[in-house]
Amino acid sequence: MACSRAMVAIVGLVIAGLLFPAASSSMRPDQLITMTTDGQYHSTHPVVTIADGLTADYHDVSCPDLRGIVRTAVVEALQGDITIAADLLRMFFHDCFPQGCDASILLLGTPWSEMRMPPNLSLDKRRKVAFLMEDIRAKVHKACGPTVSCADIMALATHDAVVASGGKPYHVPLGRLDSSQPAPRRFVEQLPPPTFSIDQLIGAFSSRSLDEKDLVVLSGAHTIGKARCATFSDRFTSADSGDFVRRLQDNCTTDVNRRQDLDVTTPEKFDNKYYINLKEGKGVLTSDVQLLLNESTRAYVNDFADNEWWFWNQFGTSMSKMGMLQGPQGNVGRIRRHCY
Ligand code: HEM
Prior knowledge:
CATH architecture: Orthogonal Bundle
Strand content: under 5%
CATH topology: Peroxidase, domain 1
Number of helices: 14
Largest sheet: 2 strands, antiparallel
Strand order of the largest sheet: 1-2
Distance between the termini: 46 Å
Bound molecules: protoporphyrin IX containing FE
Order of helices and strands: HHEEEHHHHHHHEHEHHHHE
Shape: globular
Number of domains: 1
Helix content: 40-55%
Number of strands: 6
């Protein structure tokens, strides 16, 4: 048994290295943001910044039915498959982080598509999500003409998926343009891997103008969804792992393809149990558990565990902020006539 556990851990670490290259390699020197061996990001130019000029009422005149069309389609899709909510939420993060929220992640058709890059290979329902976004775009453009970007549709759909899972409504600034090209691989590979330490996580988020509170509250997205054993098998190598980690490891030994709930208490509900679990030693990913190892991030974990309303409120604020990330050229692009 001990031997098969070690095998699971080793195989997991190899797979994790392939899936999350930022964990195992330094970034190339031609990048604007570089990561040094201490895991800190050093930015010579702000690559991704918070945009201004987006407003919640951007489409109110040109497309008054927009929100209703998106909400109806998302609710219908989730009735067929609730797991789409988690994939959509994760995809929104993976779209925004590399070069701003420009729906570049939905561009499936090219060999250099972001979906073919390591951090995104595990987005299980990625095609389903891309097809859903295209389906909604077709409905919206039919009703209003080509006035709304796939990026805005994705931001609204993500909001609706959070609300449908039990979260609270938040402000969704609109007016984004779509990218014509996938993000460069070197930016996609800056998505933080699950093996990052707290200092590395703080550094990764601050390279995108996101602070420690944003890091802790956005990690609360792990109140829904699942993770494959390979993404947390680094935890099995620690000699002092407790009962919870041993249980995770036993489950993975029995079934290496297992997908483990990230919130072990209420996996399909968008609530604050993720933080309560963390405090009870039941965090799944290393990056989740690391949130307890810094004074400031630990204080936020405690706040959100103690007060669900505060979590919902701050989650909405940080989602709006992340949703306004834009690349070095600013909010440039076009309204795509096809989302993927
Ligand atoms: C703090 C840094 C983060 C790291 C290191 C991280 C890492 C991961 C990993 C490794 C998984 C499991 C993937 C798999 O097994 O295929 C996952 C799942 C997930 N992540 Fe994160 N994540 C982070 C932040 C975020 C943020 C900011 C969001 C959204 C706001 C998010 C939303 C999700 C969701 C919803 C899932 C479940 C996906 C599903 O069930 O299909 N994560 N994350």
